[in-house]
Amino acid sequence: IKMAGDSRFPDVDTDVSEKNEATEIVVNVGGVRQVFYRDNLNQYPETRLAELVNCLSGGYDSIFSLCDDYDPGKREFYFDRDPDAFKCIIDVYYFGEIHMKKGICPICFKNEMEFWKVDLRFLDDCCKTHLSEKKEELEEIARRVQLILDDLGVDASENRWKRCQKYIWKFMEKPESSYPARVIAVLSFLFILISSIVMCVGTIPDLQVIDPEGNRVEHPTLDCIETACIGWFTMEYVLRLISSPNKLYFALSFMNIVDVLAILPFYVSLILTHLGAKLMELSNVQQAVQALRIMRIARIFKLARHSSGLQTLTYALKRSFKELGLLLMYLAVGIFVFSALGYTMEQSHPETLFKSIPQSFWWAIITMTTVGYGDIYPKTTLGKLNAAISFLCGVIAIALPIHPIINNFVRYYNKQRVLETAAKHELELMELNSAEGKAASAKSEPEDFEREGKEGPFCSSRLKVSHSDTFIHLLSEEKHYRTRLQSCK
Question: Per CATH, which fold does 162-306 belong to?
Fold first, then answer.
């Protein structure tokens, strides 16, 4: 590469020999002038720069099909492209691979590679990762925008049941779609809280009553409240299942399985209470009912449906399985080592609390996690030293993987905010382009009739975009929306 003004390379002037002119190609990209040797370019003959080698013999039509402008005096080709991206792309001719500089939008860089006809396989793997992440963001934005558009649009070909089904789905699943849907979401949230509070309050002995068999049971008032909550949850689940577009996916979804686990114990315990006594002993029925009532704690996870914070936490934990695995491995190794050492060192004391190594596991767990209940503690000097080292190692083992887990949480939370903002921005741009298109078509209608006889059919679309614009392909392919993504980073 020869840069203009670089003392290491001679400048291209009018006095170069015919031999040099035959072996050099001068390219000016965005004001940055560079010189290439034909031998290097011919290594990849399918690229645009390699096609410049033989375009002069084809005349100006061939030249201007490849570049934006050409100076025959300087034999210089001009391109109105991004010079920073171009400096990265030309590395393929010298190193056989391309690295994308920090700060360049991956999607725009991909468009530049397509313009210069350089295959994506030359892009380094680390840069392909950034490109795939940006593609996933665009697909997520397109999916969100498409969902909003589907909610706003009404298909006249649908029958009454389909329209009613879509309305119920929006009413139950999308609180942002209307004010009544927001009220339903708030009511569902309140029922979850009330049900959880009733479950906790029902265990207070002073609020319990004695049944005819002499057993303590929940107060009848609390049972009525519990029944009302279960009735609401059941109605909510049935309506969502009936209106679901994909019922199999709906039934196998994790949050919907949680909903079933929150509802099912009530009906199973009801059946066992009224019918189970005839089939089995009363004591077995009561034990089964008690076990099922404990499963009511699953309903607290229903709050995740209405809390973006809990959803973000769940996703962060999913993305942090590797870090959590390291944490458990560190703790497992430390627990095994320090419990064995503690058992060995405490055997010399006559009143030792370390009866066996498996029993010492409990002491090692509460020591390394800095809980320290004090039910088991060392009494010898070496045992106390071992305990001090164990909780210091426990603090280090717990602290090491925490930072990546926090980073995953913050990254996902910020990403969700960016995606929401980008989706709203896309809708605003679509509305703006639609309004401008209508105004332009209304203004140009009289001119179209006059020009039609002279210049032929007049193009109705007046929106022009630059080569560096990034489009959401999912929307442009399915719904023919051609919008500009301003949120690329």
Answer: Four Helix Bundle (Hemerythrin (Met), subunit A) (1.20.120)
CATH fold of the domain at 20-147: Potassium Channel Kv1.1; Chain A (3.30.710)
Mind listing the pLDDT tens digit for each residue in 407-444?
888 887 777 777 777 777 777 777 787 777 777 666 65
Which CATH number, 3.30.450.40, 1.10.60.30, 1.10.287.70, 3.50.50.60, labels domain 311-428?
Answer: 1.10.287.70
C-alpha distances in angstroms, 416 versus 192, 272, 312? 26, 45, 9
One-letter amino acid at 392 equals L
pLDDT of residue 286: 59
